[in-house]
Structure formats: C-alpha cells, structure tokens
Predict the 3D structure of the following.
Amino acid sequence: MILGRVIGTVWSTRKDENLVGAKFLIVRQLNLDLTPKESTVVAVDSVGAGVGEVVLVAQGSSARQTTFTKNKPVDAVIMAIVDKLDVSVKEKLKEIVES
C-alpha cells in the first residue's frame, strides 16, 4: 500500500470499455511526515478523492479487489481517503537518524 497525495487528473476519452466512467488520478507518494517523494502513480479512483487529498493506494492484484475495479484492467486504485495519520515519536526519530 502507498500513502500519497493526489496532484492531478488524467483525461482519457478512449479506453477499455470496462473502464468507461472511471476517474484516473495522479498520486505522488509521501513519506510518513507527509513530505513528497519523487515517485508518482496513476490510479483509478474508487472513493471520490480529489486533488490535494491524502490517500491510500493499492497496487497489483490487490487493486482489482474493490467493488469498482473487480475484474477490470487496473494496476493501481485509490481505495481510501486519509482523515488522520498518527506516527509514533520513536518512528519519527528513526527517520531523522536515517536521513
């Protein structure tokens, strides 16, 4: 699972018929302190996320396990919008030491 922030939208008028009506969003991966990483992914939105929101993304075969993406040609899906993120002080200190 990836923690990320929605940074944009992909528009596609021609696509597999199983994906008609699907919204594609660009998600930038985040560190636990919500700072951005370099990597991005295009994911199908199954929860109504929007630009600027922090989300959880599932990839691979797990991406085809939501109600919307079941048996569809999807490799990444936004399956949750994050309301709050609690990270222990111990984990934050570990990140500081490693960087």
